[in-house]
Amino acid sequence: MPSTSDLAATVDHDQAVGRLRSSYQDIPPGEPVRLAKRSSNLFRPRAETDRPGLDVSGLTGVISVDAAARTADVQGMCTYEDLVAATLPYGLTPMVVPQLKTITLGGAVTGLGIESSSFRAGLPHESVLELDILTGAGDIVTARPDGDHAELFRTFPNSYGTLGYATRLRIELDRISPYVALRHVRLGLDRLAPAIEEIVASGMHDGEPVHFVDGVAFSPSEAYLTLGRNSDAAVKTSDYTGQQIYYRSIQQRQKDFLTAHDYLWRWDTDWFWCSAAFGAQKPIVRRLWPRRWRRSDVFHKIIGFENRHHFAARIDRRRGRPERERVVQDVEIPVTRLAAFLRWFDAEVGMRPVWLCPLRLRGTTAWPLYPLEPGTTYVNVGFWGTVPIAPGAADGDVNRRIEAAVAEFDGHKSLYSDAYYDRDTFDRLYNVPALTAVKKRYDPDARLTGLYEKAVTRR
After folding, report:
1. Lowest mean pLDDT: which of 210-219, 291-300, 325-334, 347-356?
2. Total H helices, total E strands in the chain
3. Do 113 and 103 meet the contact criterion of CB atoms below 8 Å apart?
4. What pLDDT digit, counting tens, does each position of 28-76 carry?
5. Is the pTM of this model over 0.90?
6. How far apart are CA 162 and CA 456, in angstroms?
7. 158 close to 415: Cβ distance less than 8 angstroms
8. Is 129 helix (H, G, I), strand (E, B) or coil?
9. Options 3.30.465.10, 3.40.50.960, 3.10.310.10, 3.40.109.10; which CATH number does 4-176+440-455 get?
């Protein structure tokens, strides 16, 4: 029987859904429909509008946690930071916890979410048991793997709000120990794929269990896999929320211990390594930079401010520096093509370091808008920064070359950042015909923006 607190949370949730539906009906036909949320982890600029968005202010919490069943009912706009805070006291976490604290559960399910458990736990949508969705028709439907809305359930991942917005999700949870023991294993590029395939097949490396795996390629001659295992005890834990910087420790030590909480958020403090762009890794600046502001969402806001006002770009022009192209991408490459892709990327783009995260669909279901093959191991390659625009080149040229190369290496690209595909190519790569068929049922008046318009033309 639900506890009193669970019942109160359910009542609050129902009231919040009512406000959401009312705000949806208040948006005139033809006007853009979007969430009225304060933060975003997207890197795609959106067309400005002064129209009010959907009221999701009451949909940011955890409704309940069932520790015995290892499930949770969670509101769509709940951040993983808040979700983890609710589950960790039970020794539980979501099956996949994306790296940045302010990513929302609904956002990860309708978009992209990958982390170091993805080699065994797949992607966030694979741990969803059911979800309530506000559709383009203004209805709330409960979608499950079977039943009347099974097609919506399968097509919702990677739809990025074009089919509707999740208001409640029931998800599976995973056990986690109080600590995570780390091993940083240096490997040559040609050894990465065999090591990853061995770990995926056995869950072991050199006789020790592996519960988490990701990696960093600092250069073609220096790459590491970081192998994590659950541990009930720790010799001494490290703290990378202060003066020490996590990604640098990968090169400096072979073994490490973190609390489960600090492990899950190890990348958030310095936004992987991107905090260097703001000087936050310089010892003097770091001592003055308040700890509470060493967060990915703070850095993201700084980037947003620069994108609107272009202060740094104007300074660079005055100093005679070339304009720069933003290259912020995550791509999935089949593990057998990983070494070749990394060599191509380093020679043609030259951004260092890059993040490596093995992933494999957890089940045998082929998700229509996620063109990943069941039974195939991929490696997410993440690279985030800028490159100088070469003389005679145009902004976007490097990103277009990367998109072409990803296709040549049989890979797939996430849509949280800029995309440059022509419509025919985009429709083929992201199975837009399947999306369109489902959209006709759940958004018959086309009130929600299309996927190409969101990802490429930025409407």
Report:
1. 291-300
2. 16, 16
3. yes
4. 887 878 786 665 656 655 555 556 689 999 999 999 999 999 999 999 9
5. yes
6. 14
7. yes
8. strand
9. 3.30.465.10
Domain locations in the chain as residue ranges: 4-176+440-455, 310-420
Tokens describing residue 97:
């916890």
99 vs 147: CA distance, rounded Å: 33
Strand partners, 180: 230, 258
d(CA 364, CA 375): 7
DSSP-derived letter for residue 232 is S
C-alpha 83/C-alpha 79 separation (Å) is 6
CA 122 vs CA 92, 102, 127, 362, 372: distances in Å = 17, 20, 8, 5, 11
- Name the fold adopted by 310-420: Alpha-Beta Plaits (3.30.70)
Sign of torsion, CA 81 41 379 389?
A: negative
CA distances from 431 to 407, 427, 451 (A): 15, 6, 10
Q: What are phi and psi of 270, to 5 degrees?
A: -115, 20
* pLDDT tops 50 at residue 4: no
Average pLDDT estimate for 124-152? 97
Q: How far apart are CA 227 and CA 116, in angstroms?
A: 9
pLDDT at 1 (0 to 100): 36
